[in-house]
From TrEMBL:
Protein name in the entry: Sodium channel regulatory subunit beta-3
Species lineage: Eukaryota, Metazoa, Chordata, Craniata, Vertebrata
Keyword tRNA-binding part of the UniProt annotation: no
Record organism: Pyxicephalus adspersus (African bullfrog)
Subunit structure: A voltage-gated sodium (Nav) channel consists of an ion-conducting pore-forming alpha subunit functional on its own that is regulated by one or more beta subunits. Forms homodimers and homotrimers. SCN3B is non-covalently associated with alpha subunits and induces the formation of alpha subunit oligomers, including trimers. Interacts with SCN5A/Nav1.5; regulatory subunit of SCN5A/Nav1.5. Interacts with SCN7A/Nav2.1; probable regulatory subunit of SCN7A/Nav2.1. Interacts with SCN10A; regulatory subunit of SCN10A/Nav1.8.
Key words, A-Z: Cell membrane, Disulfide bond, Glycoprotein, Immunoglobulin domain, Ion channel, Ion transport, Membrane, Signal, Sodium, Sodium channel, Sodium transport, Transmembrane, Transmembrane helix, Transport, Voltage-gated channel
PROSITE patterns: IG_LIKE (PS50835)
Amino acid sequence: MATWKDTSYWSLPLLLLFVRFCSPVCVEVPSGTEAVQGQNMTLLCISCMQREEVFAITNVEWYYEPSDGNGNRSLIYEYIDGRHNKPQSQFTGRLQWIGSKDLQDVSLILQNVTITDSGRFFCQVNRTLHFEAHQHSTQSNLEITLIVSKVASEDFTSVLSEIMMYIILAFLTLWLLIEVVYCYRKISKAEEVTQESVTDYLAIPSENKENCSVPVEE
Ligand SMILES: *[C@@H]1O[C@H](CO)[C@@H](O)[C@H](O)[C@H]1NC(C)=O
Ligand SMILES: *[C@@H]1O[C@H](CO)[C@@H](O)[C@H](O)[C@H]1NC(C)=O
Ligand SMILES: *[C@@H]1O[C@H](CO)[C@@H](O)[C@H](O)[C@H]1NC(C)=O
Ligand SMILES: *[C@@H]1O[C@H](CO)[C@@H](O)[C@H](O)[C@H]1NC(C)=O
């Protein structure tokens, strides 16, 4: 239940399952950016390998820059030469590696998120291929801007139903307006017609009267 709220995209776990079970397929799914205080947040970082990088040595570094950090980022986690290193930081004891064996997924779980965890996380993945005479390196950088809120934002479905309600309300109002205008026109037209017919009615008898009165007088 918690992970569903953590990711905030309900489709994300499905995509992750897809990535995990179909190992030849790697999809660089973007990380969720909204976390809730006191819950666990997955800092998703997927860096797909090129076919020729299968034998590359992968090093990973995670950096954090607080919201008001003035570009001052600090190392919070690293995976270098097969060893996990966790430098002392505000995240000490709260970061859990959930990366995959092939190191295409190098994600972390940040446990018990606090408001002060808001900021930018950087996931840096280096892959180095060693050849006899030279080495070839590739580097990928991913940035996650984490926003921590005190309470869970509303469910997607409730937001959707709220939007639907507003659409229906707007539609009904418009329909009512059209109906009112239409009715008003119809009524004023009908009034014109009745006024005309009333004057007709009044006019005809007077003519008739005159017409009638003439023979009577004769
Ligand atoms: C966060 O993760 C830790 C360790 O996996 C677990 O013990 C804890 O219950 C989790 N907390 C929440 C709110 O899911
Ligand atoms: C990746 O390479 C860059 C440039 O060589 C270096 O500054 C950085 O520390 C490396 N990162 C990792 C995770 O090895
Ligand atoms: C960056 O932050 C570290 C601690 O997180 C601090 O020791 C250092 O002085 C800061 N550097 C700058 C330029 O603000
Ligand atoms: C989460 O953090 C709060 C404040 O930092 C602390 O009081 C609480 O005990 C922590 N909960 C867990 C499960 O670590």
